Amino acid sequence: MVIWLIGLSGAGKTTIGAELVRQLRPRIANLVFVDGDAIREVWGDSPGHDIAGRQVNAARASRLCAMLDSQGIHAVAAILSIFPEWQAWNRQHFSSYFEVFLDTPMDVLERRDHKGLYAAARRGEMKNVVGVDIPFPRPPRPDLVLAPPAVLEPPHAIVDRILTRLPAIT
Ligand SMILES: Nc1ncnc2c1ncn2[C@@H]1O[C@H](COP(=O)(O)OP(=O)(O)OP(=O)(O)O)[C@@H](O)[C@H]1O
Ligand SMILES: [Mg+2]
User: Does the C-beta of 112 come closer than 6 Å to ligand 1?
Assistant: First the structure.
């Protein structure tokens, strides 16, 4: 199974994903954490962040998870996905796919701005920021949407919500 956390930069994908893995590992040893930043570290950042580069990255992330899943390795993916077609691909190719949309409001993201992306984009110093100059299509078929107030709760409470809704893992 692949649990995929979608949301804009700062939505909490890495934070929630890491905590989810920490809580699931005692029960599921064959579980890996596939974080968006790790994907770019593993393969290098040459695709860049424009839409074409994001397509390359999306393909890498989905195909990696498919390879793991086909060998019985579960994955938690914490990756900003802006392509509904790759979300559909995931649903078709993984043995089981549970998509969580962290619908954190833009004003909260801009306040967090942990990478300084939004401030730089607003100053006109950075391009290709999703939610600013790259549109973010809302995922059409998430299995779970966490919007305010739920998505503003502390990470452990959000993880509890996901665990409650997760289908049984064999
Ligand atoms: N539920 C939450 N409540 C308060 N702060 C949070 C919450 N979730 C995440 N944060 C904080 O927001 C910041 C961004 O979180 P995180 O790195 O998990 O986002 P992300 O979605 O992985 O972003 P990116 O796409 O840039 O990697 C961090 O400083 C984190 O501590
Ligand atoms: Mg992250």
Answer: yes
Structural domain count of the chain? 1
Ligand 1 pocket residue status of 155, Cβ below 6 Å: yes
Taking CA atoms only, the protein residue closest to ligand 1 atom 25 is 9
Token pair of 101 as six digits: 């949309």
Pairing state of beta strands 74-78 and 97-102?
unpaired
Residue-number span of the structural domain to which 104 is assigned: 2-165
> Which residue shows structure tokens 């599921």?
28
3-state secondary structure of 40: helix
pLDDT in tens, 22-72: 999 999 999 999 999 999 899 988 899 999 999 999 999 999 999 999 999
Summarised one tens digit per residue, pLDDT across range 89-111 is 999 999 999 999 999 999 999 99
Could you tell me the CATH number of the domain that includes residue 83? 3.40.50.300
Mutate to test the pocket of ligand 1, among 5, 14, 156 (most ligand atoms within 8 A of CB): 14
In this structure, which ligand is nearest to the CA of 114? 1
